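Q: Protein A?
A:
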Amino acid sequence: MKILVTGGAGFIGSNVTRKLLERGDSVVCVDEFNDYYSPKIKELNVAQFEKDLNYKLYRGTITDYEFLKGIFETEKIQRVIHTAARAGVRPSIENPFIYEDTNVKGTLNLLHLAKEFAIENFVLFSSSSVYGNAPKVPFAETDPVDNPISPYAATKKATELLGYTYHHLYGLNVNVVRPFTVYGPGGRPDMAPFLFTKWIDEGTELKRFGDGSTRRDYTFIDDIVAGAISACDKIFGYEIFNLGNSDTVDLNTFIATVEKILGKKANIKEYPAQPGDVPITFADLTKSRKLLDYNPQVKIQAGMEKFIAWYLENKQLY
């Protein structure tokens, strides 16, 4: 198939791209290479594909409808995996407008073009952040998600609603996936796995927000990729799927895991809990296992060993 991967130079998008190319698909990548973190990291992500005849890169923003329309007209795309987004809970509180523009307008552009060009299937990356401070755990796709606690989460909920609207009005097939705290080699440098590894390795202050009791459903990148590609391959009409590990780890245990692998102690300084942070993320995978054959394989110790090995080889690049 010929598949459009938006945000294809990013962490998740580039790993999805690699797997699609390995199995013989053609990939059209769109990415704006913004400066949320160093663009040179994204340049490294796409460099591995530049000689692949089944790969084509377009540099531009998903907020530009005419730019995207030209790609759809030229490339004869069959399916879409939409990973592009402005990510990050805390930065969205500081600058909500850019989140609305990229996440909502950009997604609307893509959904409308998918309708116009009769795309077979559309995978829409949402976020576990939509669950907010949900009182019931683990989080199931049928749980209400009407109380987001950050602009980022609100924009992701908005994209899910737009996806349903385009399914209802035009019959567009949309599979929404909600990833839970994705990590692994090449992971984003603004996220805890990278930051904590860096701080402990360098012996600098480790900023721990809260008492360390918050829990996250850390999910290894290979498992996320497998779930996303299954969602691309399977057509259901409109469905929402959790992509997590369904095994929560508290922050203090996570820090201890990094300490053990590096053989170094953390210099922890406690800060107040951050606005927008949730006490727990925990994925119910019943539906994903049944319909996507999703079966996460990598637990936190093995996953962080792989990540830290990659970090130690590549830290001079960051």
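Q: Protein B?
A:
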Amino acid sequence: MVTVTMPQLGESITEGTVLHWLKQPGDAVALDDALCEIETEKVTAELPSPYAGTMGQQFVAEGEVAQVGEPLCDLAETGASQPSASRPQPVTAAPANVSTGRPASPPSAPDVAQGPGDRNPEPRGRFYSPAVLRLAREHAIDLERITGTGIGGRVRRKDVEQAITMPSLLRQPESEAPPATAPSEGGRPFRVATFSPTRRTIAANMQRSMSEAPQAWTMVEADVTALMAQRSHDRTAFEQRHGGSLTLLPYFVHATCRALREFPSLNGRWTGDELRIYDDLDIGVAVATETGLVVPVVRQADRLSVEGLALAISDVAERARSRRLQLSDIEGGTFTVNNTGAFGSIASKPIVNVPQVAIVTMERAVRRPVALDDSSIGVRWIMNVCLSFDHRAMDGSEAGGFLAALRGFLEQPAG
């Protein structure tokens, strides 16, 4: 018997959510069969079996969060093999018990005592995942008073979150009489929002970014009349060749890469206390999906033409929305571009995608009357460009210089 644990499915990922078990206890399992679907920060991946055998006990219920290294399930082996090279996700087995030679029992297998009519048995010596313990400490929740909904009565993160928002769900001590009713806030009805794993991860990352990085913000106006004309000129031929639409975004990313070449200090990532400036421009492009914002990476974006960028962005955006991104698609970005103008925004304050040090937004291009150099008034296409940056990595002069260069490239696009 071996124990399969939660693998680390990417850099900085510390936990994952079991979305679906694809094998049930007693099912035969072949080498590399998918055991379950795991949702991490931005992707969903199938967990391959490292052995052939039979599915044993499952320690994490569907929808439950598990930390990296936490036991997921037992497998009764029938033939030990190495994982296939085509399935790179790491899977680890629990260490063997020295005296018996068998895998040590996972700490999350609770000893359950169940009496007649007990619908939700409580284990003796309950096991709590690190995520549950951390959340309980942050909100001063007594875990012993929570009725767990997990396997064997295990307390899940979802149970703690519900107890935080609805204290009436906590079991009352025997010495206290439970209230007759659980009044709502001010007598008004309300619903408790249920966050998806992706939404919870986004929230945690945003909080981390704001607490770790002292962030500054600045904005410039760019006259993109020439850029709009260039896009109109290129659009018909592009659509005939590729069938898709040609937006302003690839032009903006192209101009961003040119500006980053002049101000490379913005193309960096923190690694511990070390700021690393990268030669490759691996540009993250924010994509709105049904489950939250995803930032797939266009590798070596500076080596692509506007047409190549349009195709690359369309590809990662389509795969992001259909949740077909691979881990390699979201890791290692060096700078982020966000097309907030797609939602009609004319100004925004983005949050730096740590450990990166800067993020820029492309706002909506709008037609406005503008005073021209010859003192006449003309109608021009104007776009606001907003930059947030980590003040530890640069000063305002570098950030301002980058924005000025970017504005220049937008106003005089490469033909």
